[in-house]
Amino acid sequence: MQSLYYGSNLKNLLITISYDGRHFHGWQIQQNALTVQEVFQNSLSKIIGSDFDVKGCSRTDSGVHANMYCISLKIAHPIMPERLKAALNRWLPKSVAVLDCVEVPLDFHARYSCVSKEYIYKIWNNEVRNPFLDGYALHYRYKIDENLLNNAAQSYVGYHDFSSFCTLDRREKGDMRRNVMSFSVKRDGDLVTMKVEADGFLYNMVRIMVGTLLRVQQGKINPDDISTIIEKKDRSFAGPTAQACGLYLNRVNYNL
């Protein structure tokens, strides 16, 4: 919004939400597509009017979910954080929930103040699909050796150029290096969960990492070749981009 009053009443709020990505084409406002930012701002305007500035912590793709998504909101309105949380939860669709709303320093930015993000990817690993996970996990009917994939995934850990694990478009320019702090593959019954934390992610990076590990499971990529794929900096050597349905932004970390 353009007319935000930068006076003594200005405050910056950190709003934490969760949402079901099946209903949206990601976070960022788009023409002719419903997004989380659009419904959030529409609900916000019903409460405090149009004088605000919203910044999201990340872009998310169509169909991707968020257990934790963070928004920095600058307003001059006198509404208290707890009151705003309650009001937003009244106006937002049921697919979006406000988990928390707290005041933070004025220089806090939901995206640029972030020190790391954590994503999880869920795979339902059973010959028979689970109707309750439709749209919330990838259905993969063939055997997954979680120990094999967990060991292979350790090649992702470290500070690397992840050009091989990025879908290039006009959004990705400049430095393609990221620091992956951890990557794990664990099983709970028929549910296999991949978890990765990094200081930042490229476009489709996690989904391509997952697709590459599934190629390892299929014997089409050698587990030891992931390091070589990273070194090649060429998208054509990595596996396919896994479906969006299994991906969740799980946690956003700040030094507050």
Describe the structure in your own words:
- The chain is an alpha+beta fold and 256 residues long.
- It has two domains: 11-104, Pseudouridine synthase I, catalytic domain, N-terminal subdomain (Alpha-Beta Plaits); 116-254, Pseudouridine synthase I, catalytic domain, C-terminal subdomain (Alpha-Beta Plaits, 2-Layer Sandwich), CATH 3.30.70.660.
- Helices cover 20% and strands 31% of the residues.
- Strands 1, 2, 3, 4, 5, 6, 7, 8, 9 and 10 form a ten-stranded mixed sheet that branches.
- A hairpin with a 2-residue loop joins strand 8 (177-188) and strand 9.
- The chain starts with 10 loop residues before the first strand and ends with a strand.
- The model has no long low-confidence stretch (mean pLDDT 95).
Average pLDDT, rounded to a whole number, is 95
Helix content: 10-25%
The main sheet comes to: 10 strands, mixed
CATH level-two architecture of the largest domain: 2-Layer Sandwich
Return the string of H and E elements.
Answer: EHEEHEEEHEEEHHE
Number of separate helices: 5
Q: What is the 3D shape?
A: globular
Name given to the CATH homologous superfamily of the largest domain: Pseudouridine synthase I, catalytic domain, C-terminal subdomain
